[in-house]
Design goal:
Layout lengths: L24 H12 L5 H11 L7 H22 L2 E2 L12 H9 L3 E4 L2 E7 L2 H39 L8 E5 L3 H10 L4 E6 L10 H13 L3 E7 L6 H13 L2 E5 L6 E4 L3 E5 L6 E5 L2 H17 L1 E2 L5 H20 L4 H8 L3 H14 L5 H10 L12
Parallel strand pairs: 5-6, 6-7
Antiparallel strand pairs: 1-3, 2-3, 4-10, 5-8, 7-11, 8-9, 9-10
Length: 390
């Protein structure tokens, strides 16, 4: 094809204006713009490529491959030789580097020497780079915004679907293994009013890290969603949980702790509950039955009212928490639970639970657990109140 910068027999310079019926209007305007403005950029390359191939725009990957291979080789030759003659066999029509030459011209990496119209000299790649990359960056930003808008639109449609009777086969849905986390994340992303979470055991697994965990909470709170999280008292000793709670409370979430053992529970907008199955923690049950969900919400809120704010750290609070854990340990002993079961219900390790029992033996001057149980029975201590025997 004939590129506007090298039409024959026309000899074009930066002072030449094209008005030639042999050329498409787009090419004429691109060249005329080149006279006073920046040299052709990626847009010019697309117009000329489309003209050459009958309207088919070249693939970007193929363009880059041409630039990285023959294009770079030819540009290096132009730099080292101080330019290329217009009749150079490599770049003449049918030459082995003709395609690379045309690309370098369209990118503005080669231009006609103003002093010698029959010679092509190289340009600074930094200048050409900005002309090529800037439009791509703008297009990338536009596509990101467009994709975000589509995501918001589909999220709104998903909320409508989930509220409809056809979204599930019934009020109960079993979730297994890797399907659990994405399902919960999707529900949380659609929450509009409230997210209630009961997290047993002491430590919090931050998964992708504290930053990601806080970003999830921030997204909820920014939408005006109320976030309540309930832990066991033992969570106060977990460094990861302490950092997480410090972050979410600063954002506006509320966190409390309770002495009693409870199972994991997640409630979304008081319309969906996620609970574990008793026999397999790798299986969860999503409950949408309104009566059952309302009952679970009531259970959670009753526990919430008895719980103590995680951020409270006064002497009275610490003393009450220690008393509640002591009373819980006594109840576990009286009920005859094994150490692993008792430790799980307290949310501590077996070693920590053994230390609690050792403290009680020392407090009541008992040599064995059997003797400790006998003393507790004689004194009528049941562990139902936090200050029994103290």
């Amino acid at each position: 094809m004939l590129y506007p910068a090298e039409l024959q027999p026309l000899v074009l310079t930066d002072q030449t204006t094209i008005a030639d019926e042999r050329l498409p209007t787009e090419i004429q305007s691109l060249w005329n713009h080149r006279r006073t403005g920046p040299r052709p950029n990626a847009a010019a390359r697309r117009f000329t490529a489309a003209w050459e191939e009958g309207g088919q725009v070249k693939d970007d990957a193929a363009d880059r491959a041409l630039l990285e291979g023959p294009g770079t080789e030819l540009y290096e030759a132009a730099v080292s030789e101080g330019g290329l003659a217009a009749d150079d066999p490599r770049i003449r029509r049918g030459g082995d580097q003709r395609a690379a030459f045309e690309m370098l011209v369209s990118l503005g990496l080669l231009h006609q020497d103003t002093a010698d119209s029959l010679r092509w000299v190289p340009d600074d790649p930094g200048t050409a780079q900005s002309r090529v990359i800037a439009p791509l960056s703008l297009e990338g930003a536009r596509l990101l915004e467009e994709s975000a808008q589509w995501a918001r639109d589909f999220s709104a449609l998903s909320q409508i679907w989930r509220r409809g009777p056809q979204s599930t086969s019934g009020p109960f849905t079993y979730l297994r293994g890797p399907a659990i986390a994405p399902y919960i994340a999707a529900l949380a992303a659609e929450a509009t009013e409230e997210v209630l979470t009961a997290q047993p055991q002491s430590g919090r697994d931050l998964g992708g890290g504290l930053k990601d965990a806080l970003a999830d909470e921030q997204s909820l709170l920014d939408r005006g969603v109320r976030v309540l999280t309930l832990y066991q008292h033992s969570a106060r000793r977990s460094t990861a949980t302490q950092k997480y709670v410090a972050g979410v409370t600063e954002l506006g979430a509320e966190v409390r702790t309770l002495d009693e053992f409870f199972h994991r529970l997640i409630l979304i907008d008081r319309r969906v509950a996620i609970i574990p199955t008793p026999d397999d923690l790798g299986v969860a049950l999503a409950v949408r039955e309104p009566t059952v969900v309302a009952y679970l919400v009531d259970v959670f809120m009753r526990s919430w009212e008895r719980a103590r704010p995680f951020t409270a750290s006064g002497e009275d609070v610490v003393r009450h928490i220690a008393g509640e854990q002591r009373a819980m340990t006594i109840r576990m002993l009286i009920e005859g639970h094994s150490d692993p079961v008792s430790a799980k219900r307290l949310g501590v390790s077996s070693r920590t639970y053994a230390a609690y029992v050792a403290d009680l033996k020392e407090e009541f001057e008992a040599a064995t657990r059997f003797q400790l149980g006998y003393i507790l029975g004689r004194q009528g201590i049941t562990g139902e109140t936090t200050h029994e025997g103290q």
